Amino acid sequence: MVLLGLRRGAPWAHLAAMLRSLLAEGEVGVAESESLLGLPSGDLFAVANAIAALIDAPITIEDLSSRVLAFSGRQEEADAPRVEVILGRQVPERYTQVLTERGVFRELIRTDQPVRIDPIGDGRHGYSMPRWAVSVRAGDEVLGSIWAATRQDLTEERAAALRDAAKLVALHLMRLRAGTDVQRRLRVDLLSSALEGGAGARSALERLGLAGQPLLLLGAALAPGGGSGADDPAFVQERQRLGDAFAVYLHAVQPRSTTALVGGIAYGLLPTAPGDTETRGQRLAADFLDRVGDRYRPVVGIGPVARDISELVHARACVDRTLRVLAQARGDRRTARIDDVHVESLLLELRDLAAARGDGPTGGIRKLIEYDRRHGTRLVDTLATWLDHYGDVAAAAQSSYVHPNTFRYRLRRLAEVGDINLRDPDERFAAMLQLRLLVSRPENPPA
After folding, report:
1. Would you say the pTM of this structure is higher than 0.85?
2. Are 271 and 187 in contact (CB under 8 A)?
3. Which phi-psi region, left, alpha or beta, contains residue 38 (left: φ > 0; alpha: ψ -120 to 50)?
4. N or C: less crowded end of the chain, CB within 10 Å?
5. Residue 432 has pLDDT above 60, yes or no
6. What does the pLDDT look like over 312-369, one tens digit per residue?
């Protein structure tokens, strides 16, 4: 049991940092306490306070996206825009737009000297205080920036102190990045080994502290959409955020769980009681999705409970197949087990097989496609609509916005052209299978 103590008014970032360090403990080993130039390694808030004392001004440390990584005390000496930045942990877009138009970010990238930013007026808070900013660099790479709010010009001594502080912040940021990257890589390697099976799987589970017990595997993923592809930077960043949120959620539910982003999927592996089934996974998945936004339509697949290495490999395959169906599914379904989507998964696998072999429509379906292409008719759509409505002519005709008699005529015509016996269940099944696997149909066919 761990007891955390916080002073009244302590920033949430302090609590988040403490929780992250505790959650990571035991996964990659506990390192000795380190310091950089007399300050705790990676403690950007301590660094921010030290810089504020050196230049006598409240400061923030921000990343390249103008997200606040840490801030010093004495922020009450600044202005209303700074308060808004601290509360939101992000510089508002209306300010970043002005800074971009003024060329401030371009100047910060160009030079390692402090840059003065004149007051900005936005009609909400009046004009802001002047700012001094300096880039934080590691070699040629810009990692972020330091921002000081002060009405006084910087003396040569304070300008030099700000430049030196940027080097110190760079060391701490690199230390944080290295620690985070090591933990993530280790989790990815161990979880990947466990999910792939093989000689290293048992050792990986032992290092994760999950060997010799029933395990529940969940997988969370994002469905690309809205013009964003899987390689879009914003989508990649959102996918990493989903993985981090999934890790925090599962750790809160089961501290011994482990989570890693592998191949675009955030897998969560957690021990479970011997009598538990996928029902628990369904509850966890639904609860997690209720807590996160749906900007990129996150989905969660639930694997069967695994009692040994071979079952864990099978559970991973089930999760992957389930997520593929959910990513392409229409409607509001965002979580499922493989049993819930087994048929859809088989159809996707058959479609992959047909595409790999270059298979195309045959028999009557091919005849109908060629006839529609030559004559501008819609016999293929007529057959598909009739099959989708279980042979109900009235419902199919209404869906096609035509009179039932017109629809019956088209059915007779397509049966003649394609030489298809619509009374034969085998021929109906073959036609339906080809239409599902081999024929591209518009989502909203014209009337």
Report:
1. no
2. no
3. left
4. N
5. yes
6. 999 999 999 999 999 887 778 899 999 999 999 998 888 888 888 888 888 888 999 9
- φ, ψ at 325 (rounded to 5°): -65, -45
DSSP 108-167: HHH-SS-EEE---B-SSS-BPPPEEEEEEEETTEEEEEEEEE-SSPPPHHHHHHHHHHHH
C-alpha R_g of the chain: 30
Task: Find out whether 314 and 306 touch, Cβ atoms under 8 Å.
Answer: yes
Instruction: Classify residue 226 as left (phi > 0), alpha (psi -120 to 50) or beta.
Output: left
Tokens representing residue 390 in the block: 């279980």
Q: Report which DSSP code applies to 402.
A: S
75-91 residue pLDDT tens: 888 888 888 888 888 88
Distance between CA atoms of residues 225 and 144, nearest Å: 30
User: Looking at residue 401, what DSSP letter applies?
Assistant: T
Buried b (16+ CB within 10 A) or exposed e, 116-145: ebeebeeeeeeebbbbbbbbbbeeeebbbb
CB of 309 within 8 A of CB of 197?
yes
DSSP assignment letter at 31: P
> Cα separation of 190 and 180, whole Å?
16
- If phi > 0 it is left, if psi is from -120 to 50 it is alpha, else beta; for residue 56 that is left
Judged by phi (left if over 0) then psi (alpha if -120 to 50, else beta), residue 2 lies in beta
Question: Residue 223 carries which side chain, given as an amino acid letter?
Answer: A
User: Count of CB atoms within 10 A of residue 269's CB?
Assistant: 28
**Two structure tokens written together for 433:** 């299978």
- Nearest in space to 49 (alpha carbons), one of 64, 70, 21, 35: 70
